[in-house]
Design a protein that fits this description.
The chain has 130 residues and is an all-alpha fold. It contains five helices and no strands. The chain has helices at 2-23, 28-56, 62-85, 93-118, 120-127.
Length: 130
């Protein structure tokens, strides 16, 4: 649920970024990236929220939906790093390495959550009588 809340906050942030970028008539490239980030975060928020609720209610599809939301979060980390790689800014190797490290750190929790959601123990817990 915490991941869903964070994803909603980031979704709002990217929607604001789109509005501000359109208002200032900056590069269309920035608008496209902000829209893509917003869409991925919205999908992530919906899947993580839905999957968490289903898992709390011991729904059979909960772990799979939660894992899909984690996949969207991992996709966001990859997209953020790709945006840094193809940006027009002249970044040195240290800045690129820092961006890559941040992307990896941001992906650690979704990867761990995905693994835990897909473990057989989680499926057994969901299937166990209440």
């Amino acid at each position: 649920m915490l991941g869903a809340i964070v994803a909603v906050l980031f979704f709002v942030l990217f929607v604001v970024a789109v509005v501000l970028t359109l208002r200032d008539s900056e590069s269309i490239d920035s608008v496209v990236w902000a829209i893509a980030f917003a869409v991925v975060r919205l999908v992530e928020a919906v899947l993580l929220g839905w999957g968490s609720i289903a898992l709390f209610r011991r729904g059979a599809r909960g772990p799979v939906i939660l894992a899909a939301g984690c996949g969207a979060s991992i996709l966001f980390s990859i997209m953020a790093f790709m945006r840094t790689l193809i940006s027009d800014d002249q970044l040195n190797a240290g800045q690129l390495a820092g961006s890559g490290a941040v992307s990896v750190i941001l992906a650690i929790f979704p990867i761990a959550t995905m693994i835990l959601a897909l473990l057989p123990a989680t499926r057994r817990w969901v299937a166990a009588p209440r």
